[in-house]
Amino acid sequence: MSTSPVKLGLPSVHGYAGVMSDFVYFVGSSLDGYIAQDDGGLAWLDKFDEVDGLGDSYKAFADGVGCVVMGGGTYEWIRNHHPGEWPYKVPCWVFTHHEFGTDDGADVVLVRGDVGTFAGELRRDAGEKDVYIVGGGSLAGQFVAAGLIDRIVLTIVPVALGGGVPLLGGSPLAVPADFTFEGLTERAGAVELRYRRAA
Fold first, then answer.
1. Spans of all domains in the chain
2. What long-range pairs does 194-199 form, CB within 8 A, spacing at least 24?
3. Angle 145-150-152 (CA atoms, 0-180°, nearest 5)?
4. 130-135 and 23-29: which strand pairing?
5. Is the distance from CB of 34 to CB of 160 less than 8 angstroms?
6. Taking phi first (over 0 means left), then psi (-120 to 50 degrees means alpha), and beta for anything else, what does residue 127 get?
7. What is the mean pLDDT of the chain?
8. Under a CB-based contact definition with an 8 Å cutoff, are residues 191 and 54 in contact?
9. Are the beta carbons of 44 and 37 closer than 8 angstroms?
């Protein structure tokens, strides 16, 4: 695999209309800053599935997404846990060093390289909608380091894991990334925090 995108599945029909898409990291985290257990496990989040408003918040966000981005580990986890049920109807870009197959009908691009190299193409695929950084934390950290995350929607749930996959990958940034606080919503002890990259 080269740094050129390899398009698999259905071709993208999204055009870039001149409206700048936001890169958004929409994610749930434990109290101690982990988004998954070491094995990728998310069972600790199951008890929050029925909390009023959490699903509505995600649905409202997802309606504004035109393209999704994820790392190879996240891609593999989704395919292993939802075989034959690819959950995204929009183009998906996977940053990975591994060779993966794709599900029938899934519009998936497998790429290797710096996230900044592909920013324009991600925005093109998103059209007038946003680019959703699904995870994992390491990939989200690369987008932060590149100055490419415009918004973070972080839901902190009242669970401590003691270890696992760090929210932003755990690698120090050469330059701290500043964000401004936009608001919060509390639901049954889970707190959704909304931030925008500082100008």
1. 6-197
2. 194/151, 194/152, 194/153, 194/154, 195/151, 195/152, 195/153, 195/154, 196/150, 196/151, 197/147, 197/149, 197/150, 197/151
3. 90
4. parallel
5. no
6. left
7. 89
8. no
9. yes
DSSP state of 50: T
What CATH code would you report for 6-197?
Answer: 3.40.430.10
d(CA 5, CA 167): 26
Beta bridge partners of 92: 68, 108
Per-residue model confidence as pLDDT tens digits over 140-156: 999 999 999 999 999 99
- C-alpha span between 126 and 145 (Å, rounded): 21
How far is 127 from 121, CA to CA, in rounded Å?
A: 10
pLDDT for 196 equals 98
How far apart, in Å, do the first and last CA atoms of the chain sit? Answer: 36
Tell me the residue type at 165: V
The answer to whether the pTM exceeds 0.85 is yes
Helix, strand or coil for residue 150? coil
Tokens 């606080």 -> residue: 181
Residues 108-117 as b or e (16 or more Cβ within 10 Å = b) = bbbbbeebee
